[in-house]
Hints:
By secondary structure, this protein is α/β, with parallel strands linked by helices. The protein has helices at residues 13-26, 39-48, 55-67, 90-93, 95-102, 120-131, 138-161, 165-172, 181-185, 198-201, 210-216, 229-233, 246-261, 277-290, 308-328; strands at residues 4-7, 30-33, 73-75, 78-81, 108-110, 113-115, 190-195, 219-222, 266-272, 296-302.
Amino acid sequence: MSVKIGIPKTLSYYVYYPLWKKFFTELGAEVVVSDNTSRPIIDAGVKETVNDACVPIKLFHGHSLDLKDKADYFFIPRLVSVDGEHIYCPKFLGLPDMVKNTLKDLPEILAPRIDLRKGKLELIKVVYKIGSVLTKNPLKIYSAFKKAKAYFKRFNSLLSEGHTAVEAIDVLEGNEERKDFDSQEQERDLKIAVLGYPYIIYDPYVSVNMIQKLRDLNVEVVTADMLTDEELTAQSHKLFKEPFWTFSDQVVKAGYHYYQEGEIDGLIHVTAFGCGPDFMVGKLLNLGAEVEDDISFITLTIDEHTGEAGIVTRLEAFIDMLRLRRKRA
Ligand code: SF4
């Protein structure tokens, strides 16, 4: 029977799941994930986590509980830096310790420290360390990682075409057809940037399926993932100091890119209650919007009690306001 590696379906799942899934399965393991986010998963996480943790961290605990009896190992990498420059939010750094010290009876946690500020060799060392749980053959590990990188590249191409992370995973796994967003572009009368951390905007439950709801309202949606690294880096000069944290940096630069491009009608910043870095991100996006007369900006804050009706009402009001303004203009 193959070893089962458990990956909670939240946080870095929405960024790196295809990479790790391909890597582990190539090495003969079975990858299992927790169920989709649901009210019981959120409630279980809230019950176990300290009050002042942000919603995504509470959710991670809920997903870990859901998964704990289904896996032989948990894979919770200690993500520090993958671009050698920016750092993940401190909650990511302490995630394996938080989970281990909060929840009981968990399987063994594989928590490799991923800090590529130490140079290119570090990646090889980390990959070997992770793979050696399943085999001591370095060639096999190298070959599995090479295939995983190619698979991950396909995932990122799907994101850049406009698929959400969930859709992209479904396309890769053969559960969904690839969408042709270019053909739908002409039919949509508004274009809106939805910016926020991947585990907030792509989790259908947490985000109340916001991206699909906007598409259903005939809106073209753009995200940070649809931009290249070069397009994001080109915004650096507008910042007195770049945001320190990886996802915060991406969100701010994506916002500035879309403001500069001038082709969006509005920008929605989706944030989680209790997120420290987002106080600064929200402010920077808001300041950017203030200098753009014709781009509207709203912040939607998600917390553990967020109901679908409240978010949908605000979304619809925002869209109605944009259409009315366009009509008047
Ligand atoms: S960036 Fe914000 S939402 Fe994400 S883990 Fe850190 S504090 Fe929580």
